[in-house]
Structure formats: structure tokens, C-alpha cells
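Running co-folding for flavin-adenine dinucleotide.
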Amino acid sequence: MVVLGAGPAGLGVALLLARRGHAVTVLERAPAPGGLAASFEVAGVRVDHGSHRLHPSCPPEILDVLRAELGDDLQLRRRHGRIRLAGRWVTFPPRPADLARRLPPRVSAHLAVDAATSPFRTAQRDTFADVVRAGLGPTMLREFYGPYVQKIWGLPPDQLSGELARRRVGARTPGALLRRVLDRKERARRGVFWYPRHGFGQIPEALANAATRAGAEIVCDAEVTRLDLGDDGVRVQACDTTIDADHVWSTVPLPLIARLADAPGDVLDAAARLEHRALTLLYLVFDVAFVSDFDASYFPGLEVCASRVSEPKRYRDGRGSDPDDRTVLCAEIPCAVGDDVWTAAPDALASRLVTELRAQDLAVPSPIAVDVRRVAHAYPTYRVGYETHLQTVESWVLAQPRIVSLGRQGLFAHDNTHHTLATAWAAADALAADGRLDPERWAAARERFATHVVED
Ligand SMILES: Cc1cc2nc3c(=O)[nH]c(=O)nc-3n(C[C@H](O)[C@H](O)[C@H](O)COP(=O)(O)OP(=O)(O)OC[C@H]3O[C@@H](n4cnc5c(N)ncnc54)[C@H](O)[C@@H]3O)c2cc1C
């Protein structure tokens, strides 16, 4: 078995296949495993690729494996975030008293009207704008979701598919939103998260260690460049290595798998139309113990180029391992590959960001150093009409008996880590005794994946 990509999905499926006695090789393009969930050091502080938390809704069978591997290093932490709404800071996830106190009366009044008129609204088209306007109402679209998706995807909300709202907006009616905010149990559940002592990347590192112990081989710096599909197997080409595999489990971006396997022209055309939004991650280093009391600050508005700024040291109790005299802020700046943000000099981008943050009442000192990481495939873009192209590529992949495409990238999904791991668990479970994937079990699993809703 060959697994493409050593992010959480690739490592998860490699672990399960190896534990079931299969010979598994994982090929990873990067110098280390982890994918988007990896951690690395900036100025001696372990940081992530943007804010990462393991949400408590992680399926128990997956959490059990992670807890067994990480032991006490996997800490249950209380969330302490805030969001900038209508020029004010509001606790995030929201609390009723705080919302009542901090939201401008004008916004609260409009929200109340939207809630009262909700039964009379229906979506005219299946766009993000129409689905949110009909469900939560025009105020939530105008004040929060509209600018937020415009910032992340660089497109107005009426050019994004309604599916994006179904995948990313947890509470889609005022009633559901109110229940979420008022229900104590729900608030308690959403108020905590799991996080490892040495950064989120300890999760894929633990999966990689467990997979290796179970017999899997993980090869890094091994970019897969070609797949030759035959009746008896798949020949996998990666840099200077060629492997003949019975089956390929791919977690690389879905459009790439079509190109690697030289799919028919119509499939390649459709693959070329599946777009991704990129992310520039800016790491600002400060010579103080902490910059903020908050783990993350969310900026849905367009006044700040970052969608979120987080302080990794606040995500964990890193006493004994984190430095006392330094901290790092990580800013997530959505962009397109090759645009002004993507190509900006790190110092210039940092100076712009610090100015914008200070204008929003976030007291940031001057950084003593700046680092940058760029991620080309950060978010799949659900532009109106993307479904047709996705279906063309997916139908072709599903017709290949020896390739399974899974994980966030392989399913062109917005999945959290626990979702992407669930796809790995389901893929391994769909493996029949003859070593082939049971199409019915996999189809049933894919229907479940379509109900995943992202947690922020
Ligand atoms: C900004 C941001 C914040 C997030 N926050 C959270 C959060 O708080 N909580 C949460 O649960 N999830 C969060 N996520 C989602 C989480 O990062 C993903 O769900 C998870 O990393 C997906 O794992 P994956 O294995 O499916 O894909 P990836 O992690 O993307 O792994 C795919 C791997 O394939 C490799 N690859 C690509 N091409 C090739 C090739 N040709 N040959 C070999 N290897 C290749 C890549 O290098 C990569 O390692 C966040 C994501 C982003 C972008």
C-alpha cells in the first residue's frame, strides 16, 4: 500500500493499515510529516500553521488513540478568544451577557428584527449570501459572514456556493444560534479544546511514531510526480523512487491526483477549474512573556488584512518547555498565489499588520523579528458552479479501483483535523478482505463526510 501525503489523514490511514498487517509506505513532499497540522519553531517557540485546536467533538475512537499516544501532553484547555464586531471586542465563542453588553444597540435591534422575520425568508439562489441571508438574516451577513468570506476567499458572498454556508456555518437559523449561545451544556462543550504541550504538530508526530512502530515506512522529501494506473496495480513515481503499489491512498489535493495520473482531457479541464485560496502566515516575535491575554483574536472585517491572530503560547501550559522571555503572534492572511500579499517582503507585511492591529485597539509592541510561511492549498474555493467540476473529477477517481482519495485535500473539503482523521478511519474500515475498497461502505462513509461542519 502506498499513501500519498503525511498530513493527519495520510498518517491516520497508514497507522490503521499497518496495524492490520499491510506493508505501507508513506510518501511526503515536505521535509517532515504533519501537513497543515505540523508545528515548527520560530525564535525557540513552537508554532502552528495558524490557529489549530482539536475540538471536543473528535470521535471517541480517534481521541482514544491520540490520548494513548500523547498521554498527559494532550491537555484539555479553556478557550479564551475574542472577535472584533462592529468596532467592539466580543468574547468568542460568544456568551449571552457579553453579547448583550458589547454589541452596539443598532446591531442588536437589527438582529432581533431578523429573528422575528426569519420564518418569512427563503433563499432565492443557492449562494452563500442567499443561504445566510435567508437563515440567520441580513444583519449577520452584513456585519459578520459577508466580509469574513470576502476576506478569506477574495470573492463576494453571492459568488460563493450555498454549500460553503452549509459546511462552515454551524448555526444556520436565529433559533439555532440562540440555543447555541444560551444552552449551558453546549457552551461548556464549545468552551474547551484539546491541545498538546509542544504544539498541535505533536498530534501528527504521534500518529507518525505509532505508524512507524506498526511497521509503516514514512519517506519525506519525496514529492510524488507521476502515477501509472495498471490492471494489477499502480506504479508510483516520487523523485528518484519508483514503487509498484497494489493500492494508492491519496491525501494530496484532488485536482493534483488527476494530473499525476494523466486523467482524460475533460477530467483535467474540470480539475483545472477547482481553485484553492492561499494563506500567508506571518509570525511576529516579541521579547516579552506574552502579548495578549487572549489565545486568538478574530477579525471578520476588511480593515485588518489578517482573518485571525493567535498566540501559540496561550494554547497550552508549556511551563518548562516554552521560553519565558519571548512570545510569537501568528497572523493568518488570506491571499492568492502570486498576489501582493503572497509576494510581500515579510517586514513590510508585518509593519502593515501592526498598524492595522493598533487601529483596532490591539496594543501590539514592535516585533523584534518576523518569519513567514506560505500555504498554497489552504482553503478549497466553493465558487458558484464548482460542484459540476468537482463531480467530474470525483466520478473519475471513484471509478479507479486502485486509488482512494481521502482527507481534507483529497475530498476538496473544509474539514477540521478530527474530520480528516474520520475519513482515514472510514477508508481503512472500508477495506474488504481481498484488499480492495468496498464501494458501498466507502459511498456510505462519503455521505457522512458531506455532513461535516467546520468548527472555528
Ligand atoms: C489556517 C488553518 C487553521 C486550521 N485550524 C484548525 C483547527 O483549529 N482545528 C482543526 O481541527 N483543524 C484545523 N485546520 C484544518 C487542519 O489543518 C486540516 O484538517 C488537516 O491538516 C488536514 O489534514 P490532511 O492530511 O487531510 O491534509 P494536509 O495536512 O494538507 O496534508 C496533505 C499532505 O500532502 C502532502 N503533499 C501534497 N502534494 C504532494 C505530493 N505531490 N507528493 C507527496 N506529498 C504531497 C503535503 O505536503 C501535506 O503534508 C486548519 C486549517 C487551516 C488552513
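Result summary
Residues 94-190 form one domain.
The pocket of flavin-adenine dinucleotide is lined by residues 4-10, 27-30, 35-37, 50-55, 223-224, 251-252, 279, 332, 378, 407-409, 415-418, 420 (CB under 6 Å).
Job closed.
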